[in-house]
Amino acid sequence: MRSVIGFLCVVVFFPGEVFAKSLYVSGYREVGVRTSADSEGTIMVTLKTGDEVTLISGTGEYYLVGLPGGSRGYVQKVAMTEQEPAEVRLQKLEQKTQQQIKELQTKTEEQERQLAALRQDRGQLDAARKQAESKASEEAKRAAELEARQEGIVRDFYIRWFLAGAGVLGAGFLVGWIWRGISQRNRRAGISFGR
User: Fold this and answer.
1) CB 61 within 8 A of CB 43
2) What is the DSSP-derived secondary structure letter of residue 157?
3) Residue 52 class from Cβ within 10 Å (0-12 exposed, 13-18 middle, 19+ buried)?
């Protein structure tokens, strides 16, 4: 509760400190910060282009400003602006640009590392694919050889059975022919075998 009351007291008694604006020395000049709001006041500090002070209040042709060290003084309104001078903005933009360039370089380097890793992975995958294709080709050749061998074995099997059948038929024909010749001779000779 005390912190809230303290904050409200600061806001009421020192509104310029709480809701302060930044002011900058405008143009290419040097401005004296005086002890009073007139040209008779002693110059406490000299501000250069781009120097920043905090606006506390305005009095006639002068602003009451807070200096970075904590002291206060008066400067002419015509010598001050709320906009940062072009040099300061340019420096900030250059710093920001340099920072962005560094970030982009870092990202680019990281992406190049990732790309190199992807290329390496692709090389390994290509090698594995070629090896698999080679192995598949060898397996296809082996399968074709085995199929041809099997066809040869089946053909040989059928030829053997055919020859065996032909041999049995030929032997039967031969035996029948011989038997018939013997039977005819025996009939002519008058010999009979069990009839």
Assistant:
1) no
2) H
3) middle
Q: Are 46 and 30 in contact (CB under 8 A)?
A: yes
Could you tell me the pTM of the whole model?
A: 0.42
Q: How far is 141 from 84, CA to CA, in rounded Å?
A: 80
pLDDT digits over 81-118, tens only?
Answer: 888 777 777 888 999 999 999 999 999 999 999 999 99
pLDDT digits (tens, 9 = 90+) for 11-45: 455 544 445 788 877 776 788 899 988 888 899 99
CA distance 76 to 68: 18
**What are the extents of the domains in the chain?**
2-84, 85-169
Please tell me the CATH code under which domain 2-84 is placed: 2.30.30.40
* 45 to 26, 39, 66, 71, 80: CA distances (angstroms): 16, 14, 12, 10, 15
Contact (CB, 8 A) for 56 and 16: yes
